[in-house]
């Protein structure tokens, strides 16, 4: 009922899993990931045991194939399952049960495994492997491109509804919010792969602005301001929080007139963010006199 890919970036060691399905909220049931250890996709008549316990076994030192062998031996209906396992070492294994609905199958590549069931054609899973292994760039973007290749090859013959991408670090830092590099889901959409792509773009831009804001209030506003100038202007209606942060960075970098103009835009459509800027001043995150000069009066 789904197609998925698990993959590893040889250059960074990052691991990821991406999936799309006609089913609702595929991201809540198919992808599993544990930073520093591996990723798993479990689908068809999915059994969460393969994901949850499978990650525990990877953490305990099992190989990818040992994980599949161990869990299928205690599964009362292994013929209904379709599973792919990738360990942090790059070790890969996959299984397609005899009762998976056609077209169903998987292909193990050099650094990825693609698998699908209820596919429009047997070309779906090879298309994912070929696209991934011929692509370059950040792992999340390569995974998204592989999903699009599956769509181009026919995808799920029933249609499309949900999609998800997870990317994890190859080692743990003790900070789960850092070790899970990407975790995005589209639960209900007429074009989930395209919607997932938009989320990836939005996420990257959002993180750039937040990073610059933090850099500015930590004492280097000029560099932060210069980096934000390379981005397209923030939209007051769709990105009011980012425009407010952008104004704060500009003000701290000495460009108070530019900051005032940005906040004037917010006064018309999102005035609550003017109050947010004032509260930054009261919290000591920026000089109170700067706040007074850049925030428009009512």
Reconstruct the topology from this structure:
Layout: E1 2-8, E2 15-21, E3 31-34, E4 38-44, H1 49-59, H2 64-74, E5 81-87, E6 92-96, E7 105-108, E8 112-116, H3 124-133, H4 139-152, E9 162-168, H5 176-179, E10 180-186, H6 192-217, H7 221-228, H8 240-252, H9 256-269, H10 272-282, H11 288-294
Antiparallel strand pairs: 1-2, 1-8, 2-9, 3-4, 4-5, 5-6, 7-8, 9-10
Walk me through this protein's architecture.
The protein is α+β, with helices and mostly antiparallel strands and 298 residues long. It has 2 domains: 2-190, 4-Layer Sandwich (Glutamine Phosphoribosylpyrophosphate, subunit 1, domain 1); 217-294, no CATH class. Helix content is 43%, strand content 20%. The protein has helices at 49-59, 64-74, 124-133, 139-152, 176-179, 192-217, 221-228, 240-252, 256-269, 272-282, 288-294, and strands spanning 2-8, 15-21, 31-34, 38-44, 81-87, 92-96, 105-108, 112-116, 162-168, 180-186. The strands form 2 sheets. A 6-stranded antiparallel beta sheet has the order 7-8-1-2-9-10. A 4-stranded antiparallel beta sheet has the order 3-4-5-6, with helices on one face. Strand 5 and strand 6 form a beta hairpin. It is elongated, with a radius of gyration of 23 Å.
